Amino acid sequence: MDLLPDSAPLATKLRNTLIQYHSIQDSEWRLAKRTKDATVWRKPSEEFSGYLYKAQGVVEDVTNRIVDHIRPGPYRLDWDSLMTTMDIMETFEENCCVMRYTTAGQLWNIIAPREFVDFSYTTTYKDGLLTCGISLDYGEVRPNFVRGFNHPCGWFCVPLKGCPSHSLLTGYIQTELRGMLPQSAVDTAMASTLANFYSDLKKALKT
């Protein structure tokens, strides 16, 4: 188990990594899934042997309210069907924390429940916000869970040009689920999970 890292340099590095992902040319992405709520693309990750996923869709709400539903806090558990528990383990400052959370089994439990411990950071980006995270090897792994690992992930949320009551939400996700899993099952689950994330989020914001 590692000690907690110094939050400031980790936050800066994480933000810079996400901005780098955000500048990847469209031609490098391959379409993975398209629904009425979101489009999901993927490309080979430079962090591990799986994929970096990009998801994008327009959400009918203001940036701050959307990000409040995504980042660690009371809203997330209420609407995210994949997340089963969430605890804030450490808080560095208002926009920076370490959280432990668990996820439900997926694909008829081919993918068993997972546990993650993530460093989370929310900051301004252009006219909107970026909330991002990366997993840490921290804390004891709870029984009955496989500890997964999120390589740099994040969500950019900016007002839609010409329509500030709507926001463009773009996510970058690269999750190493670990455990004995066929990669094809993981890839199927990831694209569907990201598309469902948008539809669940939109429903939650309307309530």
TrEMBL record:
PROSITE patterns per the UniProt record, alphabetical: START (PS50848)
Origin: domain of life: Eukaryota
Q: Tell me which residues make up the START domain.
A: 10-207
Q: Which Pfam families does this one have?
A: START (PF01852)
What GO CC terms are in its UniProt record? cytosol; endoplasmic reticulum
GO BP field: cholesterol import; cholesterol transport involved in cholesterol storage; intracellular cholesterol transport
- Please name the SMART domains in this protein's record: START (SM00234)
**Keywords, alphabetical:** Lipid-binding
| MF terms (GO), sorted A to Z | cholesterol binding; cholesterol transfer activity
UniProt key word Mitochondrion: no
Identification of the protein by name: STAR4 protein
| Organism field | Crotophaga sulcirostris
Q: List the top taxonomic levels of the source.
A: Eukaryota, Metazoa, Chordata, Craniata, Vertebrata
